[in-house]
Amino acid sequence: MILGLGVDLCCIEPIRRSIVRFGKDWLDEVFTEEEQERLVAGDQQAPYAAIGFALKEACSKAIGTGFTKGVRRQDFVISIAGGHCSVDLTGAAKHRAAQLSPSATSYSVHAHFLLTDQWVNALAVLATSDDHLSHLLEHLALP
What we know:
Elements: E1 2-11, H1 12-22, H2 24-30, H3 33-38, H4 45-62, E2 76-81, E3 84-89, H5 91-100, E4 107-115, E5 119-128, H6 131-140
Antiparallel strand pairs: 1-5, 2-3, 4-5
Helix pairs in contact: 1-4
């Protein structure tokens, strides 16, 4: 069962400017140390940071809080490998997801992104774990 849906559109250039201007302070505000270790360096750092930023925004919408009620960007731990991604919920975000469906035995976040030269479009679907839903979302995934 789908519990929440979130979408975000993020322009890469402001992310690039934030990284250049604020460096590690900005990265610390958005990403966990683990995520920062996985961020690629050089020319690809800004696009990958924008993917992570957009996914965190979409996830915050999927759980219905945005970044309020104790939910922080670091509560959504993003892993990006090639064109695929995964999201682990921690802290207040994990607590909020559990509140949305107290009778569910487990839940998951199905996350997808589309990257162009200038933009990242992110989609996050919070759902109770169900193989049928996973199969359906795989067919709807962005290329």
